[in-house]
Structures are given as C-alpha cells and as structure tokens.
Amino acid sequence: MASGFDPTRLVTGSMMFKPLLISAIMDHAELYHGDTEIVSARTEGDIHRYTYGDCALRARKLAQALDRLLIMTGDRVGTFAWNGYRHMELYYGVSGSGRICHTINPRLFPDQLRYIVNHAEDQAVFFDLTFLALMKALKPECPGVRHWVCMSDRDHMPAEGFEGLLCYEDLIDAEDGAFDWPEFDERTASSLCYTSGTTGNPKGALYTNRSVVLHSYAAALPDSLGISAMDSIMPVVPMFHVNAWGLPYACPLTGAKMVMPGAKLDGASLYNLIEREGVTASAGVPTIWAGLVQYVKAGNLSFSTFRRAVIGGSTCPPSLMEDFAKLGVEVIHAWGMTELSPLGTVARLKAKDVGKSPAEQKRILEKQGRPVSGIKLKIVGGEGKSLPNDGAAFGDLYAQGHWVIDQYFGIPDSPLEQGWFKTGDISTIDPDGNMQIVDRSKDVIKSGGEWISSIELENAASSHADVAMCACIGIAHPKWDERPLLVIVPREGSGKAPEALKAELYEILSAKVAKWWLPDDIVFAEEIPMTATGKLHKLKLRERFGGYVWKAGA
Ligand code: ADP
Description:
Blueprint: H1 22-32, E1 37-41, E2 47-51, H2 52-68, E3 76-80, H3 85-96, E4 100-103, H4 110-120, E5 122-127, H5 132-138, E6 147-150, E7 166-167, H6 168-173, E8 189-194, E9 204-208, H7 209-220, E10 232-235, H8 247-254, E11 257-260, H9 267-277, E12 281-284, H10 286-298, E13 308-311, H11 318-326, E14 330-336, E15 343-346, H12 358-366, E16 370-371, E17 375-380, E18 395-401, E19 416-417, E20 420-429, E21 435-440, E22 445-447, E23 450-452, H13 454-461, E24 467-477, E25 481-490, H14 498-512, E26 521-524, H15 538-544
The chain binds adenosine-5'-diphosphate.
C-alpha cells in the first residue's frame, strides 16, 4: 500500500525558534545559578573560588579581549590548560562569540602538537604556566599563531624569554564586560578536538553549537551521568580530552557546582579536594581511579559525600568497580570517543532488571551500556551484514546521531559508510541495547581464524590482588597467526615469586575464559606504556615485544 505520508502537506509548527547556542548555557547559569561555585586548584598553587555569575562576566570580557586582539569570527583559539576556571572562561568566551575553542592535549608528542596547531591554523594559543617550556619550544614551529597568552596574573608571569607573551589577567582587566552574546546559526562550529592519533596524524572533530548543546542535555539525563543542581561535580577527565566528556557544559546547564582539580591528579590531592568540597560525583579514566582507591584503602579512609564515579575511556576493570562499591561509590561505566563528542553509551539498569540477582545486575553494569537518547548503534559482520542484537554476535560497531562526526576537519573524504560512522571497536549488543566492547579492532587477537578478546583476559587478570597493571597483546605465531601474551606489572611490595603469581593467574583465567583463549605465556614488566589519553599503548607494547619468540611447545 502506498504510504500516507505527503511532504507537501506538512505543517510548520508555531513555537519560538531559538538556535541551540553554547552561550545560552552560560546565560542560564548566570541567571539562575549565579551564586553556585566553581572551585579550582590553580597551577599557581592555591585554591580559587568564584561563581557562575563571575565566570559569565569574565567570559564576556574575554570575548571583548579577543575582539581587541583581532581574532576574527570562525578563527581557532588553541588552549593548553588543565581543568580550571580560566579554561571555563575560554570554553564560553571563545565559542560563545562565534570563534572555535580548540583544546589540545599537551601529553601528545611535540611533533603531533606542532602538526595540530598548524593544521587547525590556531590564531592564538592560551596556556597554563605549567606548559611554559613546551610553548617556548612550540612557538618557532608555529609561525601562524599571532598571540601567545599565559593564563596567569601579572605577579606570576614568567620574567623573560618569551617575546610578546600576553598576560591573561591583563587582557581581562582591560575590558568592562558590556558585551552581548551574538546570535547565529546553531550549526556554527564551536569547538575542535583532535584524536590522539596513535597511528597516522591526529584528526580533528569539529563540533557545532547544536551538537554540543544536545550532547549536554543528554549527558545530564538521570540514566546518563545524572547531573543536577544538588551535585558537586569534579571533572577529573581533562578539559583537553574530548571537552572533559561534556561536563563543562552539563554542569552550568544544570547548575551543579564544579570542582576543578588542576594539574594534581594523584590519590591524595583528589581525595582531599573531594572531602573539602563535598564532591558527589566525578568522571575519569580507570588509571586515575586506581590511584585514588589505592590511597583511600592504604589510609583506611572513607568518603563522606562521594557517591558516583563515571568511568570510561577504556574498559573499567570489574575489580575497580568492586573496590569502589566497598567504599560506597557507585561506578557508572560509559563508552565514547572523540568522534562522538564523546558520549555514546552508559551502563544503567532498567526497572525490569531490579528483580535480577546481584550477579546478573553486575554483568549488565560491567558492559559499556545502552545508547543515550540521540545515539543509534549497530554491529556489522564480515560480509557487511547487520548482526542481531542478541548479546552474542559480535562485529564492527557503527554509530549515528546528533553529536556523531560527519567529516574530519580539513579532510574532504567522508569517514561515513552509508551514513554510519565506523567506530573501530568490535562489540556485542544485547536485546536491551546494552553494548559490550569485545576489543578495539586493531587489538583483538586473531588466533586460527577466531578472535580472542584482549580486554576479557585483562579484566580477569586484573582481579588478582597482586596485579597493578596488565595488558594482553597478540604475538605472531607460526601455526595460529597470533596468540595472546599477557604482560603483568606486579603490585609494588607484592613479594610473590613470579612463578607462583603466574600459576595463580592461570588458575583465575582458566575459571573465566575458554581454554584456547589462555595466554601462551605471561611475562612481567616494570611498567606498561600509556597513550596521551591514559589508555594502554598496545602499539608500543607490540613494538617492545616485537622480538618475542614463543618457547618450543607453546
Ligand atoms: P583516543 O583514541 O584519542 O584516545 P578517544 O578518547 O576518542 O580517543 O578513544 C575512543 C576509544 O576508547 C573508543 O573507540 C574505545 O575503543 C575506547 N573506549 C572508550 N570508552 C571505553 C570503555 N568504557 N570501554 C572500553 N573501551 C572504551
């Protein structure tokens, strides 16, 4: 039967049209949460406190300062900065005035930094004092940057050795804040984030005002990060890593207090800040949390207000979830990527899961989670055929949605396949929509035509109390293509003989995975290389073990 849909008969609704602009988020915070605090541990060494009202005023002053510096509409403004109030002002002052806030990960290699600043054609670079030496080295390599601004006050400005360096507080002090946020098309670019590019050059994801605003609403939802005006939120994930997963927008959107940890992310600094500022929830990668949990356990401490830890960026080891649970903190496992702004899925129970056994609930919450509204996922098998959402079939994961990349910045070729973005992850999706990452497609171990999940082996191994860190990689094998090699960093002071630890690990693994998945060898290392975004650097690890030869009979 012919469809009854007739596009010529569509009726335009009669509601106000307001473009979805980032400036409106700060406007809201200023108007209705003007006295809510943003507390920042500063690189200058002290704690700074002010309110959303102060932040909004200074963001407007910053927009005026950018006018004065002749940074034009659409220009990119680079930032090398920790989580702090001045970085917040840049997020809003730059994007709110029609310019593009380009946050840069200072942990990348100098060559990548040079590439990124030049590729983005940054007109100005704002940086925290910590990065002075890095900026001195970068400046001659980036002749296109017209202004270098140190994010500090006159008293803390470096004495000399940086020609033409501007002082952030001088720029702000010169303005009066009499500035109205301009109104423009909601599809206007607002912010630029480059992927870390462990292979090839980094690529830029250019977010729009619209995509950021919609992402912020979705991130704040109860079944997403669940943020409200009752919260005190500490973004541990850096503002230079995919916009701190959207928290600098979702917090003012809801009126949550913000607690910015600055450069010190060790267990003691985080714990003290959490307790002093009544932090209720936070977000970050697993490695950061491991440090905090270790500190709290070692000191026999407890949390008085901290209740939710959002963990993503790489798989959250189940052992970390258990440790947090014992401390009264609920872990919310989330998955995302730069190309998704970054939020894709969040692991949350549904009403129908409430009656399930604790073990069943745990299995759901250990997955990467359900797509947040606005994101659609599918998995595709070898011949390009969509696979069923049955929780068993696994294939390449594709995404679609309001805040999914359409095109990389400055690269004409589309990254999409029939309108879908291929994430590079391999996963399952169950009938309830819960997605579970089996592996990154480049990390999955291909053994005799079958796949072994390096993540599952790591999860199992990390449950051993004497394992501080572990990574599993595929090593070339004459018969099976690849076989798994498990690399272990023993916990400091564990004192267990390597052979005994090895035997115990095989016992744990045998109980959790199929026999043919068992690593052919377990080796010990002092450390495991990490990427600039705090993930296991498997490419480097594979290089390190490039010369590894399986023992006869393995
Ligand atoms: P980069 O590659 O620059 O570090 P992203 O931070 O965008 O960039 O990394 C995205 C990738 O991180 C995802 O494609 C996925 O492989 C991995 N990832 C993110 N969250 C999780 C998670 N909760 N579990 C497993 N892997 C994750």
